[in-house]
Automatic annotation (TrEMBL):
Entry GO MF terms: DNA binding
Keyword vocabulary terms for this entry: Plasmid
Protein name, entry field: Type II toxin-antitoxin system HicB family antitoxin
Stored CDD domains: HTH_XRE
Length: 146
């Protein structure tokens, strides 16, 4: 995955801000530099996913450090890895036109549980939970490798 040039700078009110030079990804008011980097990684991943989902071209990184004016630390950041299962679950609910709240009601769990399963940065999912969500929206789960 390509790395994008980002700038991390101190926030005058404390903490740190950051932005990706090539893409409209901004982070404001994080306590540490590491939190800015993590948020930029996630923001880049989500921005690129949205471009792909809307059939738009994903721009390659083109900015160079010389393109950046002003103070700040230049950092090349790779977008975070998205969990394809969470992304597929989000598409499933959108396709079925069912809200997270409704899925939670059908499963008898809190909305937080459903929200966690749809988190594109969630590390893993239980197969039994995936099967329950599929049934809750009137589908069945299939696993394919290609």
């Amino acid at each position: 995955m390509p790395k994008y040039l980002c700038v991390i700078e101190p926030n005058p009110e404390g903490g740190f801000d950051g932005y990706a030079v090539d893409l409209g990804v901004f982070v404001v008011g994080k306590d540490t530099r590491e939190e800015v980097i993590e948020s930029l990684q996630e923001g880049l991943a989500l921005h690129l996913l949205e471009l792909q989902e809307h059939g738009r071209e994903v721009p390659p990184p083109v900015a160079q450090a010389a393109d950046v004016e002003g103070p700040g630390e230049w950092v090349w950041i790779e977008p975070a890895t998205l969990n394809p299962v969470s992304v597929a679950l989000e598409h499933l609910l959108r396709e079925a036109e069912i809200s997270q709240a409704e899925v939670a009601r059908r499963l008898g769990v809190s909305r937080v549980v459903v929200h966690r399963m749809l988190d594109p940065f969630a590390p893993d999912h239980k197969v039994s939970s995936l099967e329950r969500i599929a049934r809750a929206v009137g589908k069945r789960m299939e696993i394919r490798f290609s």
